[in-house]
Design goal:
single chain; mainly alpha; 6 helices; globular
Amino acid sequence: MAVVVPSVLADALVREYLTRHSLTSTLAAFDAERPRTADAISSKSELGKTLGIDRYLKKNKEKADPLKSCLEVVADTLASKEREKKGDGRHSEGHEGKEEGRPTLKPMPKKKDESKQESSSSAVPMIKPEGRT
C-alpha cells in the first residue's frame, strides 16, 4: 500500500463525517476551500483499511445504535482505550453514558478570581448608542 499524506486522510475523514451528517452546505464550502486531489480517498472501506480501523468499523456496525462516521468511530475508539488505561471501566459498547455511549460532559468550574474579574474596573465599559440615554 502506498504512503498516504496525513492531510489526505484528514480531508477524507472530514468529508465522510459531513456527508454522513447531511451537512451539505458545509461540505460544499469545504470542497471549495480544499478541492479533492487525484490521491483523495472516497471510499469508506478504503479509508478504514488505510487507517487500520476496519475491525472497529465492523464492531461499530454490529452495535444496536452505530456511530455514523469513521471520525466518530476513531474518536470513540481512542476515548475507550484512554478510559481503559485509566481504569475507568466504562466501555462505549455498553452505551452506559446518557447519550448512547458518549460520555457526559460537565461544565468547567469557575475559577475563584473569575467573579472578581467580571466586576472589576478594568472591564470594558458599556457604550451607549448615540441619541439614547
